[in-house]
Structures are given as structure tokens and as C-alpha cells.
Amino acid sequence: MSESKLDENTMRRIVEQFNTDELLVRFDAGEVSGPLSLDLSFMLSPRLERAALNQLSAGEATMSRYVIWAETVRGIVLDAIGVLGTMPESVDATRNLTRAANSLAAFAAIQSCVDTHQPDRTR
């Protein structure tokens, strides 16, 4: 097994990078989740369940599966932001969803450093 690419300074840099009200699409959310026009909500429970079951069995793909689930959630959030953008008085909801999407992106970036089976998403 390869050594983790994550140290405390890198982790803090990633968290700080995504701690913004500006929507950061650092990598294609569709890379894992599929196109945003696709209804991804039906994938949430099965992807989370696969990750949890893998974790319960001490499987090697646990974090990879959680990253896939997080990217699916993030894709749904990004889609919701797009829909809200067309509605008046949606500023607070959009800001909250943006923070949620960025937090999920930070999670994925951190896990890609820890899980050597994931591509590097810190760039």
C-alpha cells in the first residue's frame, strides 16, 4: 500500500481553499457523479450503503466509496444551486448550498490524499 500524500499542513490548506462563499468547481463533479442533468438522487442511498458495508467489512475501497457518495451529493447540490439561481430571493439558500458543495469537495480532496486508490484532486 502506498503512503498517504496527506499531512496536517496539506489538510489545512485544502480545507481553507474550499472555505469560501464562491462556488469552486475544482474538478468535474460529473467525473464520478455523472452529468448534472441526470437525476442523481436515486443513487444516494445505494452509494452510501456500499461505502458503509465496505467499512463494516474493513474493505480497502471504503474511502473510495465514500468519495463517490460525496461527489454524488455534491452533484445534486450543484444542480440545486443552478435551479435556485433562477429564483428571486434565493441568495441565502444558494450561499448555504455553495458552502455545502465546497465542503464536500474538500472532503473528496482530503480523502484522495489519504486513499491511494483515488486520483489527486488537490490540483
How would the blueprint of this fold be written?
Elements: H1 8-18, H2 30-33, H3 44-56, H4 62-84, H5 91-114
Any overview of this molecule?
Mean pLDDT is 76; it is low at 32-37. α4 (62-84) packs antiparallel against α5 (91-114). The protein has helices at 8-18, 30-33, 44-56, 62-84, 91-114. The longest helix has 24 residues, at 91-114. The protein is an all-alpha fold. The protein has one domain. The two termini are 23 Å apart. It has five helices and no strands.
N- to C-terminal separation? Answer: 23 Å
**What fraction of the residues are assigned to beta strands by DSSP?**
under 5%
Based on CA atoms alone, the radius of gyration comes out at 15 Å
Q: Mean pLDDT across all residues, rounded?
A: 76
Number of strands: 0
Helix content: 55-70%
Major sheet summary line: none
Write a short abstract of this structure.
It is built from five helices and no strands. It has 123 residues and is mostly helical.
For the structure shown, list the relevant keywords.
123 residues; mainly alpha; 5 helices; 0% strand; flat
